[in-house]
Amino acid sequence: MTTDPLVVFTPSGKRGRFPVGTPVLTAARQLGVDLDSVCGGRGICSKCQITPGYGEFSKHGITVADDALSEWNKVEERYDQKRGLKPGRRLGCQAQILRDVVIDVPPESQVHKQVVRKAASARVIEMDPATKLYLVDVDEPDMHEPTGDLERLARSLKREWGIEAIRADVTLLSKLQPVLRKGKFQVTVALHKSHQDDVARVLDIWPGLHESGLYGLAIDLGSTTIAAHLTDLVTGEVKASSGIMNPQIRFGEDLMSRVSYSMMNPGGDKEMTKAVRDAINTLAGEIAKEAEIEPHLIFETVFVCNPVMHHLLLGIDPVELGQAPFALATSDSMTLEARDLDLTAINPRARTYILPCIAGHVGADCAAVALSEEPGKSEDLALIVDVGTNAEILLGDRSRVLACSSPTGPAFEGAQISSGQRAAPGAIEAIRIDPETKEPRFRVIGCDKWSDEDGFAEETAVTGITGICGSGIIEAVAELRMAGLMDESGLIGSAEMTGTPRCIPEGRTHSYLIHDATAEGGPRITVTQGDIRAIQLAKSALYAGARLLMDQRGVDKVDRVVLAGAFGAHISPKHAMVLGMIPDVPLDKVTSAGNAAGTGARIALCNIGARAEIEQTVRQITKVETAIEPKFQDHFVAANAIPHKTDPFPELKKIAPLPQVSFNLGGGDSGGEGRRRRRRG
């Protein structure tokens, strides 16, 4: 009795015996090997390319002969002439198994293509999106067996792809018949299949093989900015990323002021809903133009946002989120039609998925961070802080995860700061103050040189030095503390107290002068006492939220800290620690995860299994409501000191012993009549 040939697939290692003449694609499907095919084995999509290996494979215990696969056929010849096959490649749907063989499936031929995240983790995004393309041959109409075109399309999809049921709206039906006939009853369909629904929706249809692409938008809808990643739903590649200011800022800089606007102005919520939807349409159009794709090829959007933005996006008045018990209209995830949200800049039949919220003040953005950073799978105790206008904080390990939201306000993003601005070319993003001379040196966005280096003036001539952004103001306040120009209470000393004329009187307090370009008609950039107060309030809220979670876990320290958010990626861990933004840990245990909420949105866009996972995860997270926790105020007051009134910060002392100075502007005298005390530490 002859034994059927053995086939071994790499990198999966799956193996099995198949009759002589079995196509490689058929063997792959029967073994569950990750080998792509859109055309269903017709040799026209080229997704199923494979590389056979020849020679001895001791690891697999087989020797592969040169004639292990059938010879090239006309289909492969034609494809190679038209588009070209890499040397050694075959089409899996055409190559037949004749003898024992080892088959390598290259990354570009795998369905679940791996997209390696560039920040925080080498974890991969497995491609299994809700929206996919299928090439199908539809039975032609027959007078003796009268059926509709949609019904025959459904029958063919079930036969060729195992799709059990489909539905289509009337706008799709109106183009179905002409497209079928133009393609001679061979068409490509875009199908959306939710993880919560067995019926697939037909989103679009093209004659023949559609090769212009399939795209989705992962959108992080923040209080201050709206960020979007245009993602290829076949490869997972981010084709373009872009952002736009949230126009709702004109109704209030923070979330509660927007809730107040809705309370005080009848119809105010509808104004804010329209504003944000218009902005998303603008952003979608711009990002499609940047990537040079047609906007109607965007078939799906995934949103992550805080609860107030969640309600305003959906057209729900957020008034209940402004008062205890902070009830959400719904906390579950939602799958909608994009047109329900007036998203008109993309495909009219596009679908939208919104991640679940965790609690009244802990939103889908925090859920997205949990999906991206997976604190519930951490062996050590991790504190994850998504720094923004509202800070989302997660604390957890394999045993338990807690979450809260802290109202930090917009100071960390350069707002409410006298010389503050958004992160843009010309903004000071980093600063150092010499502890001896008290002189500053700084770096601006758009120039790699420091201000005391040759060529700095020339390289910044176009942008100028325009202001200071969030990371810059954090470093400036921390540097003032390290240089002994500001005491732990946040007071800047006078010129006499500090020994530098850069400490200038301003009313009853003092400011520190970083850069003065008034002689050339430019700005005068200072750090004022008001700026420091705004940063103190923001960092105190952040630290108090973290301490509250630590109290709930019964711990005084964490093992590591992850700074998330686009802004978090640019914070210097040392300066954040000096400021007392985060709990004391060794500096090498502070890492950046970049825009983790945006990454979580992209994971949910690219993988429907991740959607089911986060829906389950949020139900297991313990929610802590900072607004009603009595200890929050105690932690907040103690955290006003820089770095902290009572917490010792031993790790910080090893790397940055802080001068023990105290400035007392007795009676508010700005002329320097106060006392300066130095204590030996």
Largest sheet: 6 strands, mixed
The percent range for helix content is: 25-40%
CATH class call of the largest domain = Alpha Beta
Strand order of the largest sheet: 18-17-16-19-21-20
CATH architecture heading of the largest domain? 2-Layer Sandwich
GO biological process, one term: methylation
GO molecular function, one term: iron-sulfur cluster binding
Domain RACo-like middle region: 215-372
Domain RACo linker region: 121-211
Notable features of this structure?
alpha+beta; Nucleotidyltransferase, domain 5; elongated; Ubiquitin-like (UB roll); six-stranded mixed beta sheet; 24% strand; 5 domains; 681 residues
Brief description of this entry?
By secondary structure, the chain is of the alpha+beta class. It is built from 17 helices and 35 strands. Residues 660-681 are annotated as: Disordered.
Produce the secondary structure layout.
Elements: E1 6-10, E2 15-17, E3 22-23, H1 24-31, E4 49-53, E5 55-57, E6 62-64, H2 74-82, E7 90-91, E8 96-97, E9 101-104, E10 114-116, E11 124-126, E12 131-137, H3 149-161, E13 166-167, H4 170-182, E14 186-192, E15 200-207, E16 215-221, E17 225-232, E18 238-245, H5 255-264, H6 268-291, E19 298-305, H7 307-314, E20 334-337, E21 351-354, H8 364-373, E22 382-386, E23 391-396, E24 401-406, E25 427-433, E26 440-444, H9 456-459, E27 467-468, H10 470-482, H11 495-498, E28 503-506, E29 509-516, E30 524-527, H12 529-553, E31 560-564, H13 573-579, E32 590-594, H14 596-606, H15 608-620, E33 622-623, H16 630-638, H17 650-655, E34 661-664, E35 675-678
Parallel strand pairs: 1-9, 13-15, 16-19, 19-21, 22-31, 24-33, 25-27, 31-32
Antiparallel strand pairs: 1-2, 3-8, 4-7, 4-9, 5-6, 10-11, 12-14, 14-15, 16-17, 17-18, 20-21, 22-23, 23-24, 25-26, 28-29, 29-30, 34-35
